[in-house]
Amino acid sequence: QVQLQQWGAGLLKPSETLSLTCAVYGGSFSGYYWGWIRQPPGKGLEWIGEIDHTGSTNYNPSLTSRVTISLDTSKNQFSLKLSSVTAADTGVYYCARGWGRPTWGQGILVSVSS
Amino acid sequence: DIVLTQSPDSLAVSLGERATINCRSSQSVFYSSNNKNYLTWYQQKPGQPPKVLIYWASTRESGVPDRFSGSGSGTDFTLTISSLQSEDVAVYYCQQFYSPPRTFGRGTKVEIK
Question: In this complex, is the C-beta atom of A93 within 8 Å of any C-beta atom belonging to chain B?
Answer without folding.
Answer: no
